[in-house]
Amino acid sequence: MAKEGSRIKIKLVSVEGPHKGKSVYVSSKSRINSKERLEMKKYCKWTKQHIMHRESK
Fold this sequence. Notes:
single chain, mainly beta, Rubrerythrin, domain 2, 4-stranded antiparallel beta sheet, 4 strands
């Protein structure tokens, strides 16, 4: 059984470029320290650039 904790798994989905929503990363964040959605620049293999990725619902 999985332990309960303050860290949760999240999906980061691309929000820019022609392949929006296709580039997906999995990460984790603390639910206590960061309440808002996480945004990061990550690499997109289709456009070969670093573009903005946002936490999905």
